Amino acid sequence: MSQVITRKSYLRLQEELRAMREEEQPAIRDRIAAARDLGDLSENAEYHAAREELSMLMYKVAKLEERLAACRIVDEVDVDTSSVKAFTEVTLMDLGQGREVVFKLVEPEEMDLPSGRISVGSPIAKGLLGKKVGEVAEIQVPAGLKRFQVLKIEKYQAE
Q1: 79-155 adopts what CATH topology?
Q2: CB neighbourhood size of 110 (10 A)
Q3: What CA–CA distances, in Å, run from 112 to 23, 49, 98, 120, 140?
Q4: Where would a tag sit more exposed on the chain, N or C end, judged by fewer CB atoms within 10 A?
Q5: Which fold, 3-74?
């Protein structure tokens, strides 16, 4: 299953992968070599710690490579606002509390609840996806059933 991601986030993840491969990995390999030069590997804590760190880094590299391979890049300017989608900013009327709320549907790494950025994988976002202006979404959340009416859908411009 592909994950929708912005070009900016894709480039950030590529840079993170490059740093792991070209900076972190060689540094750990150097520590392993230096620890190996100390002699008896069976009781060499530095050697075993560095090997474990390399193993964890290689796992992270593999996961990041998988994620990048499965990404579908979406430019925010191409986002259709005819219904609620990833990278839209949606103004809602919370019908239970009688007040307006604004959510920005973003990728998981960009989530920040205090600023209204919610992950597209969150229960609220999933309940809103596909809704059009005027439609009501009934969403089950831990606190109970929430009802939101969609008032406005706009393109979300990342900072």
Answers
A1: Chitinase A; domain 3 (3.10.50)
A2: 21
A3: 30, 35, 23, 12, 21
A4: N
A5: Helix Hairpins (1.10.287)
